[in-house]
């Protein structure tokens, strides 16, 4: 939903603009997805594989038997790679496709569709601000703008020290406790600017929700 800047007249004279004050224009709403030109992406290959023999042995024994087809194991395997490296590289996608015997395009389609997976390394703490209708009504934009200013980054960006990544997410399913946000996989409810600051301070101090994403 787009916000409109408000105009307040300080004079009772009709059609007068001399004494009007205009509030600063709001920041543009942030889309929860990121557009990537994957068709022209350059794939950097390294000599060491991302999917190690130990990882593939674990997938073969623990994940593949749970699914009727090898394709069904794609998302659980992507989760493991994302957690291991904090992103899924294009080379890793090719290796996963080879392991599952599916086209690499199907792996890329899955990675690019779900917010859970990223093609660039995310911070140790991923902050996801919910921007559903309920959270919007309860002030999610103030929380998002506060995180922008506090961390010095925009949504889908990571701080230079690699600690924080900021995201704007769609509904997190906790509308009755809005506004809410995820710090990695921990949901925090009824947030205020003060509680956001406390959570960020805990991560910076090396405690709290600082586990890898």
Task: Write up this protein.
Helices cover about 35% and strands about 10% of the residues. It is an alpha+beta fold. Among the domains are: about 60 residues, Arc Repressor Mutant, subunit A (Orthogonal Bundle), CATH 1.10.10; about 80 residues, Glutaredoxin. The strands form 2 sheets. A 5-stranded mixed β-sheet has the order 4-5-3-6-7, covered by helices on one side. It has a two-stranded antiparallel ribbon with strand order 1-2. A hairpin with a 5-residue loop joins strand 4 and strand 5. Helix 2 packs antiparallel against helix 3 and helix 3 crosses helix 4. The two termini are about 30 Å apart. The N terminus and C terminus are likely disordered.
């Amino acid at each position: 939903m787009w916000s409109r800047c408000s105009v307040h007249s300080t004079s009772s004279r009709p059609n007068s603009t001399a004494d009007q004050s205009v509030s600063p224009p709001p920041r543009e709403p942030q889309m929860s997805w990121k557009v990537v030109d994957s068709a022209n992406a350059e794939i950097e290959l390294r000599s060491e594989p991302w999917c190690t023999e130990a990882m593939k042995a674990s997938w073969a024994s623990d994940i593949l038997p749970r699914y009727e087809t090898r394709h069904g194991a794609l998302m659980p395997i992507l989760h493991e790679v994302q957690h291991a490296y904090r992103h899924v590289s294009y080379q890793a996608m090719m290796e996963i496709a080879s392991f599952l015997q599916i086209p690499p395009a199907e792996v890329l389609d899955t990675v690019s569709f779900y917010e859970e997976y990223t093609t660039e390394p995310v911070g140790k703490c991923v902050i996801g601000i919910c921007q559903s209708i309920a959270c919007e009504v309860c002030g999610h934009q103030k929380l998002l703008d506060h995180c922008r200013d506090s961390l010095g980054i925009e949504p889908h960006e990571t701080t230079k020290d690699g600690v924080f990544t900021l995201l704007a997410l769609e509904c997190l399913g906790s509308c009755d406790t809005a506004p809410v946000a995820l710090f990695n996989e921990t949901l925090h409810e009824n947030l205020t600017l003060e509680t956001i600051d406390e959570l960020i301070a805990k991560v910076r101090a090396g405690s709290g929700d600082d586990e890898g994403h």
